[in-house]
Amino acid sequence: MKGGIVSYQNVSPTEAKELLEGDAGAVYIDVRSIPEYEGGHPAGAFNIPIMQRHAVGMVPNLNFVQVVQAHFAADAKLLVGCQSGARSMRACEALVAAGFTDVANVTAGFGGSRTERGWQALGFPVEFGASDDKGYAALSGDSGA
């Protein structure tokens, strides 16, 4: 906590896996783009991108916080990951600012960083494609039309 303001914590991919296994209420939110998520993600992860790929490149997903709020309570235990930890850090900041109180940044994300191995390199369970209920199209109500 910084000056009474609720903050987020940082957890390693190993700590995130342990939290997911030990706390039935914990959820992993993968904030990478839809194609990145579909190319492989932590098993059971929800996909709510903080940035989306458009013709002009990667642009902020203006509905990010709204979609998270529509599916998770403000006190839900959210483990937020991306590819290497940068986008998830921004996502955690946005979620804390929106009133979420139990948010953790998965520091090395799915792919890892220069100093830490990510979820995939550690050999943790991975799924591919978009699930019917955890992919962004289902969560955002966007049928792609």
What would you say this structure looks like, in words?
With 145 residues, this protein is α/β, with parallel strands linked by helices. The chain has a single domain, classed as 3-Layer(aba) Sandwich (Oxidized Rhodanese, domain 1). The protein is 28% helix and 20% strand. The protein has helices at residues 13-22, 34-38, 64-71, 86-97, 136-140, and strands spanning 9-11, 27-30, 41-42, 46-47, 51-54, 57-60, 78-81, 103-106, 126-127. It has a five-stranded parallel β-sheet with strand order 1-8-7-2-4. Strand 7, helix 4 and strand 8 (103-106) form a beta-alpha-beta unit. The longest helix is centred in the middle third of the chain and has 12 residues, at 86-97. The radius of gyration is 14 Å and the shape is globular. The termini are far apart.
User: What is the assigned CATH homologous superfamily?
Assistant: Rhodanese-like domain
Extract low-pLDDT stretches: none
Class, according to the CATH hierarchy? Alpha Beta
> N-to-C terminal Cα separation, in Å?
42 Å
Mean pLDDT: 92
User: What does the largest sheet look like?
Assistant: 5 strands, parallel
- Series of secondary-structure elements, N-terminal to C-terminal: EHEHEEEEHEHEEH
The overall strand count is 9
The fraction of residues assigned to DSSP E strands is 15-25%
Summarize this structure briefly.
With 145 residues, this protein is of the alpha/beta class. The protein contains 5 helices and 9 strands, in the order E-H-E-H-E-E-E-E-H-E-H-E-E-H.
How is the secondary structure organized here?
Elements: E1 9-11, H1 13-22, E2 27-30, H2 34-38, E3 41-42, E4 46-47, E5 51-54, E6 57-60, H3 64-71, E7 78-81, H4 86-97, E8 103-106, E9 126-127, H5 136-140
Parallel strand pairs: 1-8, 2-4, 2-7, 7-8
Antiparallel strand pairs: 3-9, 5-6
